[in-house]
Amino acid sequence: MKGRLLAVTACFAGVILVISLLLAYTVKKEYGVDKKAENIVALNEISQLSQMAASNKDTSSQKLLQEKIAVLDRELRLGNSPDKSRLYQTILIIGAGAILYLLLIFLYIYFSILRPFDKLKGYAENISSGICSLQFSAIIRL
Fold first, then answer.
1. Which distant-in-sequence residues (6+ apart) come within 8 Å of 69 by Cβ?
2. The whole model's pTM is what?
3. Three-state SS annotation for 87-127
4. Phi, psi of 98 (to 5 degrees)
5. What is the pLDDT of residues 26-49, one digit of tens each?
6. Nearest CA to 64 among 77, 40, 45, 36?
7. Contact 103/17 with Cβ under 8 angstroms?
8. pLDDT digits 0-9 by tens, 112-135
């Protein structure tokens, strides 16, 4: 019974771990694709603004171009968005918490249900071998 409970607990822990890692990997991968697409769009917009500013000699377009370049430069230097990174960490923390909770449930079931049955089994073996001097209440504490 202990072996089966341990196997089921390990199986569920493995499933939780795989799901958590797959979700975290998916979030991280999607973020990289989205960020690359955003940067390409921003660079295309800067290119269009620079062509407009060069052909029209428009100072407002040049000012807007400088602002866009500064924003894109800042985003590229900072790297990733804190929202996506926080989501990635949250998924991993929830997965670890679920595995910890599963292990706590296993320990509770083992110590409150299976361990008393092991003690009863030992007491029954003692009775069958002729040792009856042990108190039943001393063996099992409820």
1. 46
2. 0.51
3. HHHHHHHHHHHHHHHHHHHHHHHHHHHHHHHHHHHHHHHHH
4. -65, -40
5. 776 655 556 667 777 777 787 777
6. 45
7. no
8. 888 888 888 888 888 888 777 655
